Input
Amino acid sequence: MVEELLTNELERLRQELAEHERRAVDRERQLERFAADLRDTFRREREQAQAVRDSWVATVRVLINAVEARDAYTGRHAERVAAYGLELAAGVDPTMTDDPQIEFGFLLHDVGKVGISDSILHKPGPLTRSEWNLMRRHTVLGSEIISEIHFLARANEVVRSHHERWDGRGYPDGLVGEEIPLPARIFAVADTLDAITTERPYRPSSSVPAALDEIALESGAQFDPQVVAALEEIPLETLELIRGGTAAEAA
Output
């Protein structure tokens, strides 16, 4: 009787163990299928994300081409000032350089100039007060052009606010200090550096050191002191490379 009970108990335990093993195998297969599904999902998401990024870049390129078609100088200027801006952004807040919208904003800052008449945009001499008021509208026009493009929301901060001043005397909104979006504060310095070191029809270019001195004088007035300090930390040779059109080497 005892032997029979032991035999039955052993058989029950064997069956129970076999059932546990079967369930373990089933769970392992389910996990393998789940892992495979996850890998496939991640792969599709990466492909979709890349496709979205590609479409973003294509859209930005179309807008930049529209600006360049109006003014060939603007294209070269946009590339240089974007390179200066990214160098500055890395010194002020390195996380900004991971956001493609920041570079898009730098490249598209003058997109509103597509709405400015050629007689003003290409005038060889000084602008009249009324012409200057129309020219200043390029910040608002640019902001309106890209306002419906959701992936350029942060880029729009640069487009609209890159002519604001730290002391509140800029345009179009008269923002003061940290009211101005940081990307726009960074760009304002980069834009001025490129303007001073580039020859224009109405004045010769200055050297990079001379431009740095001029910008330093406006720290706390036109420019955010933090951004000016970051500019002073960038090696002179890096700035010279960007000025010379070899920004890729500088990076």
